[in-house]
User: Fold these one by one.
Assistant:
Number 1:
Amino acid sequence: MSQTLQSVRGMNDILPDEAAFWELFEDSIRSWLKAYGYRPIRMPIVEPTPLFKRAIGEVTDIVEKEMYSFEDSLNGEQLTLRPEGTAGCVRALIQHNLAARQTQRLYYIGQMFRHERPQKGRYRQFHQVGVEAFGFDGPDVDAEMILMGARLWDDLGLDGIALQINSLGQPAERAEHRTALIAYLEQHIDLLDDDAKRRLHTNPLRILDTKNPALQALCAAAPKLIDYLGAESLAHFEGVQQILRDAGIPFTVNPRLVRGLDYYNLTVFEWVTDKLGAQGTVCAGGRYDGLVEQLGGKPTPACGFAMGVERLIALIKDSGGEPAAPVPDVYLVHQGEAAARLAFRVAEGLRDQGIDVLLHCGGGSFKSQMKKADGSGASFAVIIGDEEASTGEAQLKALRAEGVAQRKLKVDELAEAIIDHMIDSDEEE
Ligand code: ATP
Ligand code: MG
């Protein structure tokens, strides 16, 4: 016997019960984004590898060790499964000249791929909702993006998601801080782990983002970037905080929040929960004013964030927010050849009227079909036997309501009767 094939490690199937939950989640995401004027964009899952190297930075976890990169065997092109969406979104913005005369508020929902060690809340294929705004340079958009998060947690019934913010300033300010940071870390070189030693002269800021507990104290006492920010950067940061205070959104300024991607400047933020263990960041983002130009476009201020869908869904489930599984309005039971043919016609006719129908397929006794009808959660069974088929009629049976007698109706009258019942039971609720 041949060995059964399994999905790739860290890449999960989302089975129907789970996927129904995902669709409801995505529905609420889409209406929330619409309320803030964001429009969808869909980019390819595969992009040229150099895009990510240039956008994310060569000395980052993602580019150094997490990308699924491969050579197209047909033409030798270097390709990568996208590890995040911002790079591709900016590429598309430039390629189609979207930011030429107008600002853009864009979003996407989809798979991302990172070769990480799979664990709870960390997968090799995972999903992000990405939100990006182009052409806005003030602190207002940064703050609006944070307010959006707060509203979403509320919409989803989630609490206890804490906001951390920081400012990374501008490149010149970072350069000055970098010199001071390297000098400090060199003084303590014996305490650094291999990763930190390797990054000392390439990307020392990222050492502060380490997850190694042994380095925490050292990092906590390191020179703080915020002390190197000039008046303009500080004013931008203060502008964001002012809007947050006005909106009553609590936050902590975390000077060690540096983010794992190189393209950020000024505002960065993360929403973190303590309910998901080590994988507690559900949403992260910030400003990346240099990226559009860096990738060959005209200078365009930009700001964005991404949410981890698996982590948010885990959190919703954790807080008991299981949505009701969608159920059909009607389960259509039928037996006999003539009945089967009529059943198809009836099912399509009901669907024409906006009624959701689960048509029984695969035969079986009336009794077993009725059991399935009950189990489906449908409000009604429509039952067609040989006798009904010969007269163009069907039995209508309410499965959920008490004291409603089963009735025989002309098939043309079914839709109206069902809709009347549905209206009545809506009014009773
Ligand atoms: P972490 O520090 O957890 O590795 P990150 O800084 O690499 O996160 P981002 O690149 O900012 O993550 O991605 C935004 C969000 O996407 C994260 O906050 C998280 O919710 C989610 N995310 C990132 N990587 C994964 C993954 N491998 N599996 C599941 N979700 C992920
Ligand atoms: Mg990561």
Note: The chain has a mean pLDDT of 93.
Number 2:
Amino acid sequence: MAETLQSFFAGRWRDASGPEYATEYPHDGSVVATLHAATAADVDEAVQAAERARRAPAWARLKPHERAGLLWRIAQGIRERAEDLAQLQRLDNGKPIRECRALVASAAGTFQFFAAAAETWEETITPSRGDYLTMSVHEPLGVVGAITPWNSPIASEAQKLAPALAAGCAVVLKPAEITPRMAIELARICQRAGVPDGIVSVLPGKGSVVGDALVRHPLVKRIAFTGGTAVGLGIQRLAAEKLMPTSLELGGKSPTVVLPDAELDHAVAGVLYGIFSSSGESCIAGSRAFVHESVYDAFRARLLDGVARLRVGDPAREDTQMGPLVNRAHRETVERYVQLGRDEGGRVLAGGARPTGGFYDAGSYYLPTVIEGLPNRARMCQEEIFGPVLALLPWRDEDDLVAQCNDNVYGLAAGLWTRDFRAAWRIGRALETGTVWINTYKQFSISTPFSGVKMSGYGQEKGRLGILEYTSQKSFYVGLNEQPLPWALS
Ligand code: NAD
């Protein structure tokens, strides 16, 4: 039975004003929920209410330990509903249940981490160069628009909400149209934790309507965006019109490098996990594997053996490793890329098709796919596919390898598999990416900054200093003169 969802904005649960639409479970295409999309007028109401709420003493004058307590209660609220939230997230975007549980746990950890950061934040007294005391404090930027994609909802949303609330901002959150559920549940948890009405609003709907209205709204002072590079560029253009800071967490085409001395079992496991977990619908998916020619054949054989044994199936099953893609339209995009790879001369070594029979036919499933024989310059190796498609590329010379890894518009992440620490350090420093994993992949810690470079975006998420993204700095000079300032009297 499909549930009816409401939006939460300006402190009230109700239907948004736009047309009704349905969300589907990617496993079988069944309708999971119906809800109304928001409109620009709803955005205006939410933002006006957020502006009032963030200036009210109940929010603006919270002491650091009180604000921390609130964030802590949100973390606890998530933990109390952990299994329920994980199951809802599975229905929302079809990720395997074990991944959903990890995302929910990470969201709770994010609020807990920023609770600690808020409580222990210190401002600085700066060295004085005159008869005055100088200090610098951080002020909340105001109302923040947070815009998130569909691939890891609760984790993405927590990574924006938690630092924004810790900094004292109010947030109007626009989740992806097709995965609104986690943001709505987070709003419920925030409300129960005691977040004042208006401080958190959630408005699902179309990016071109709700997202656009948020970006343009004069009272929105910052946009925290995660999504595709094309949309991010559009947001940046609009933000320039009102000198609004943004953080843009965008796409990727991350290389994973296997050196001649790599422990091959570790490298194979890491490459498999890096590209095929989350069905490759991950900004940091390791979608280009550069394998040294001396171990290429051995690596390829073990990789293909691993691919053949991956369990692609029902996301509700505990042992499923790869679920369906988020919907049929996205599967068609992935299929077009695989066809492009074939047209460009690539050889499909595994996958390259939909699995068929039984429940596979109803869902938006696609097989884990490995393609070799393409140069790094091929479009299939250059563009983000956001699906379970790995390009396998041999390499010989280290300088050429680094040049090929960097020969891409994106710069989000990279992986290195080697026992040679000096080589790992040398190559890792030379790669143009925001994150480098050495002998591991796709591991995350909320205490470690995350950001892209090049067309993967900018702006820090995670890490204690992530709070700074939601603040402006204000300097104070406090006169200590015993006499009036001399200029007027001289
Ligand atoms: P998308 O850019 O299509 O949508 C992201 C969000 O932006 C959605 O909420 C969407 O409704 C909204 N949006 C769309 N048009 C808009 C507009 N004109 N104005 C304002 N908002 C608008 O991306 P997607 O397909 O949902 O997600 C996949 C993309 O997200 C991939 O490129 C992936 O790499 C990227 N991503 C990046 C990271 C990261 O941390 N760098 C993490 C996850 C996903």
Note: The chain has two domains: 3-250+456-475, 255-438.
